[in-house]
Amino acid sequence: MRAAKRHILLLVDNVSSHALGDMVLTNIKVQKLPANTTTYLQPLDAGVIASFMARFRSLQIDHGIERFEADANVNGQSAYKIDQLQAMQWSSLLWSSTEAKTVAHCWQKTGLATPLRGNDEPYEDGEDEGVEEGDADGEIVDLMLKVASISL
């Protein structure tokens, strides 16, 4: 991250497994969300997971129907069973087909982020080369202050 001059703000809830201990991170700031705000502020909970699960379930139903039609000995329940490898492959397929604007929209719904550069288009690789390091740090600090000031 340091060599690429990239900065990351990692928002986490207050679960004990998110404690850093003595770990030192460069170019990564970890900010814990205020207590009892997880359901309001976690962008994945704000839409991406629901969409992902609906599409996963659709794949599973299609798979079950195909298995049921192909093998008369398959009963209703076992037709839908998949192994871990299949679940991982489907998850990879679904995540890679999730558009950046979907994720960005979920961040915007939380109120923690606004469209970058006044539009909904994500940055392309290398496009942020003109962003000064201080500017990125300032954006991270602004977002951290915004998160810290939230009280529900």
TrEMBL record:
What GO MF terms are annotated? nucleic acid binding
Question: Which InterPro entries has this protein been placed in?
Answer: DDE_SF_endonuclease_dom (IPR004875)
Q: Where is the composition biased (Acidic residues)?
A: 121-135
Q: Where is the DDE-1 domain?
A: 2-107
Region of interest (Disordered), ranges: 115-135
Recorded hits in Pfam families, A to Z, give: DDE_1
Q: What is this protein called?
A: DDE-1 domain-containing protein
